[in-house]
Amino acid sequence: MWFLGRKIDDQDWHDLNSKVINMTRENRLVDALVSAKELFALSKTNYGKKHVNMATALNNLGIIHSLRKEFDEAESYLLAALQISERVSGKVSKEVATVNMNLARLYTMKSKAINEAIEAAAIT
């Protein structure tokens, strides 16, 4: 596989994915987003739109946008990840369960943010 003018292998992809996960866990969301976009581009170019790595890259972007409270973007990425995961792994699979769990977390965060905004508006 080629990446930035050099051939890459699955291990390079997994290393970058691990980097994205670690930065996200460390709450380094700006850096994580940059690397996640890189991972997405790499996945699209090297694996195509119907591969589990593409679903993973989209799932990562959804998580990062959720944590940044960019709920519409997060939902878009997670729904795309869900579509690919269902197509590639089947509707009853670990991959689909993971994306559904992240969607549930997103909707919980979004609901909490809306409720906080309503309460703040009621106070003023």
What would you say this structure looks like, in words?
The chain is 81% helix and 3% strand. The chain has 124 residues and is mainly alpha-helical. The chain has one domain: Serine Threonine Protein Phosphatase 5, Tetratricopeptide repeat (Alpha Horseshoe), CATH 1.25.40. A two-stranded antiparallel sheet has the order 1-2. α4 (71-89) packs antiparallel against α5 (94-123). The mean pLDDT is 92.
List the helices and strands and how they pair.
Blueprint lengths: L1 E2 L2 E2 L2 H16 L3 H19 L4 H16 L3 H19 L4 H30 L1
Antiparallel strand pairs: 1-2
Helix pairs in contact: 1-2, 1-3, 2-3, 3-4, 3-5, 4-5
Low-confidence stretches: none
- Compute the average pLDDT: 92
End-to-end Cα distance, whole Å, is 57 Å
Annotation field: number of helices: 5
Number of domains: 1
Residue share in β-strands: under 5%
Overall 3D form: globular
N-to-C series of helices and strands: EEHHHHH
Structural class: mainly alpha
**Class in CATH?**
Mainly Alpha
Number of strands: 2
Helix content: over 70%
Concise summary:
The protein is mainly α and about 120 residues long. It is about 80% helix and about 5% strand.
What are its keywords?
globular, 124 residues, two-stranded antiparallel sheet, Serine Threonine Protein Phosphatase 5, Tetratricopeptide repeat, mainly alpha
